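Q: Hi! First time doing this. I have a protein sequence and I read that you can turn it into a structure. Is that right? Here it is:
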Amino acid sequence: MKQKLLLTVITIVALAAMVGNAQTNNQSMSDKSKTLVAYFSATGTTMEAASRLAKLADADLFEIVPEIPYTPADLNWRDKSSRSTLEMQDKSSRPAVASKVENMAQYDTVFVGYPIWWYIAPTIINTFLEQYDFTGKTVIPFFTSGGSGAGETMKYLRPSAPGANWVDPKNLNYMSENEMKSWINSLK
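A: Yes, that's right. Below is the predicted 3D structure, encoded as structure tokens:
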């Protein structure tokens, strides 16, 4: 009888521990799903930065892919008739995005990454932002650049997500893992 009671108690304790672990694991997953790193990358530089950021921030990763991919000729900023030049000259240009984030409502914090084109974010970032309601969400822009800063990026991004809580943009070029961790921690 004592053995049966002891075995029952051990079984109950083991089951309680397993349920506790499952709840802890589910909590970790739900915490992870509250942060998204969305990025557009034309040459791979921003993709690399976004991937590192998502890993360090324990966030989901989403690539903003243009419906019509950019060719090298489209990206030739020296050609006044190239696609990117024409889009950036027309601030109302909204290149179509190929896919959408499923259940954007689950995210409280959204990092949005892009290369700097003509001292601002490419207009495809406005397209992305305008697809969702960012009211009450924290939006943290980050960028990569061959040498320029953020320029007037925020002037053109803020109107595309007017209800968002915006954080100043950060250049992630050449940022070490420790510097990136420190920056992420400063945002909490």
